[in-house]
Amino acid sequence: MRKSDKRRRKVRSGGITRRWVINTLSVMALILIIVNVCASVSLRQYYYKMAESTIDAKVQQSAVQTFFKSYVDSSADMFEEGARDFVENFAYSYLMDVWVLDDTGDVLVSSAGFSVDDSADMPDYTAAMTDTSGSGTGLWTGYNSSGEKIMAKAFAITNSDGSRAGAVRLIVSLQDLDKQHITYTIFIAILSLAALTLVTISGLFFVRSIVRPVGQINDMAKLIAQGDFNARVDSADNNDEISELCDTINYMAEEIARSDKVKNDFISTVSHELRTPLTAIKGWAETIRDMGPNEADMTAKGIDVIISESDRLYNIVEDLLDFSKMQSGRMVKRAEPIDAIRELDAAVYVFNDRSKRDGIMLIYNSPGLTAPMSADKNLIKQVFANVLDNAFKYTKRGGRVAVFAEVSGGQLVISVADTGCGISKEALPHVTEKFYKANMSIRGSGIGLAVVDEIIKLHDGKLDIASTEGKGTVVTIMLPVDDTIVLPPA
Fold it and tell me: Does domain 241-327 have CATH number 2.40.50.180?
């Protein structure tokens, strides 16, 4: 198995959905379990506290002591008679059982009307009889001899000498409360489970709404990596970040496709540009080789063509080298004090012969001033040469190229206007991009303006291009001027 396949499988095994389930649902489930347990315990305590409050609301320690005050210091028979009177007059026997016990723990009277089992442990009775805090009560929750869950509270009966004469024990059944507690606990658990299910369904839907386009993006990226630049992601119109990402990815694919086409066109163009002078050089070299010694004129003409085409090859290679430096960030400015107007004069002078040869009028309006700046002389020359070369290439015989320069506001502003074929609105924003050619029918590599733009930016200047298709183009170069610079003598 290839490493890329292993990595892809590893990524998918730990996908977003799985991690969401582990990181989110497991945490939510744990929180809901804790909430349910806490709610169940709190509800149970509430019900049991309510049962105790019910007992306290019906019988109080002081009332018990007051009732048995006249019986405690009498005989055992009188105490039992008092116990019987207390039970018979207890108004809440329908809510709870009431026992009266003596100081040995024997049940004297019970509201149940029949004998009760008093052999089991009665922690509440023991607590009330041994209490030294003064409350004289004891509370216990547990199971009676028949297995019924009960709450029992005992109220001690005190003799006049402070000893314990017995106790009144009130017993409440907790079975109904426990059933209600279980019912509510189950209800809360069902609600929690329903909430968790709803969150799971909505969460999975949401996660899949992310995972699906991400998967499509992944598949499209693979297709692009394999050379299919027409691949696109189906973007859902959700107006969210995922939709924006899909649109951006599609835009990226379009730009890559366009760049690939421009690159292929560039390779084709450069190949053609190199082949043409090479063919001329080879053809004339073979012709000169085969000519006789008496054909000096033809030999001179052939040598002129070879020199001219060699210069053309040299310029193409120089453009490619400059472009390579620009792409790799190796283009640097070797600054020195220069007069940019002087360099412009020299560049225009070079194109005088070409204007006559191509039948194109060259108009130059020099300001007669100096434009001192700290710049790379060779790079500035290259800017002027490339811009003028473009103007002449795209202007037909009988046309006009006008160069104007002025120094204003600390800037040298140079405009080169031609009456050539112009640039379409669609192509104009791309003319300074690498490999781009607005007109494939005109010779050239398509990297001249890209290099010009980079050089001007390197000198803190600005390049502006305005054009009307079929009427011509105006290229404006703006470079900063520094009057404090001392220029070398001409």
Answer: no
Tell which CATH classification among 3.40.50.10950, 3.30.565.10, 3.40.109.10, 3.40.190.80 matches the domain 332-480: 3.30.565.10
Cβ atoms within 10 Å of 69's Cβ, excluding its own? 13
Q: Which fold has domain 60-173?
A: Beta-Lactamase (3.30.450)
Beta bridge partners of 314: none
Place of tokens 């040869």: 357
The model's pLDDT over 426-460, given as tens digits with 9 standing for 90+, comes to 888 888 876 666 665 555 555 678 888 888 998 99
Number of Cβ within a 10 Å radius of residue 80 = 17
Radius of gyration of the chain (CA): 52
Question: Would you state the structure tokens that stand for residue 217, as one six-digit string?
Answer: 């993006």
CB 392 within 8 A of CB 355: yes
Q: Are 401 and 377 in contact (CB under 8 A)?
A: no
User: Of 418, 446, 415, 396, which Cα lies nearest the Cα of 344?
Assistant: 415
Place of tokens 């107007």: 341
